[in-house]
């Protein structure tokens, strides 16, 4: 019985809430720090994390988020999302977590490959100039699976 070491982590980011974005970024960064290849595939609302106009304005999801420990009705009250977002950003600053734009630069510099989903880019009528300069390209899902077709690759949907 042979043991195969994780050689590559591929993250699919489908929602650009702060908690999802930082989960993907921290895990991709951690992979690189361990010498593991890492790639992030931004699809559907995850594309907001790499849109120049939106990436520094992401929010915490307060409605339907069981980790918030508040009733859904309260999560939907005006100002709750902004308050939760402000509180989370304050806690992240205490831990020296970089803001989204800086974190994207750090990931790119460390060798994390970042891809936009062609279907979602087309669906939301985005152009390459709407997306970060550090983006490695726009892929179809078939292209993404081809990149994943390497022994020791793990795919994680966030």
TrEMBL record:
The organism's place on the tree of life at top rank: Bacteria
Q: Name one Pfam family in it.
A: DrsE_2
- SUPFAM superfamilies per the UniProt record, alphabetical: DsrEFH-like
- Signal peptide stretch: none
- Protein known as: DsrE/DsrF/DrsH-like family protein
Organism, by scientific name, is: Lutibacter aestuarii
């Amino acid at each position: 019985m042979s043991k195969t070491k994780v050689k590559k982590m591929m993250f699919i980011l489908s929602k650009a809430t702060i908690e999802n974005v930082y989960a993907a970024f921290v895990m991709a960064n951690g992979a690189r720090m361990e010498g593991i290849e890492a790639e992030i595939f931004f699809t559907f609302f995850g594309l907001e994390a790499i849109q120049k106009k939106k990436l520094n304005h992401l929010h915490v999801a307060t409605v339907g988020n069981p980790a918030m420990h508040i009733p859904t009705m309260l999560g939907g009250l005006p100002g709750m999302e902004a308050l939760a977002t402000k509180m989370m950003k304050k806690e992240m600053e205490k831990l020296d977590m970089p803001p989204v734009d800086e974190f994207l630069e750090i990931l790119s510099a460390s060798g994390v490959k970042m891809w936009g989903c062609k279907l979602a880019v087309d669906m939301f009528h985005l152009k390459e100039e709407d997306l970060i300069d550090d983006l490695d390209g726009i892929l179809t899902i078939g292209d993404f699976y081809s990149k994943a077709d390497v022994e020791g690759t793990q795919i994680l949907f966030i």
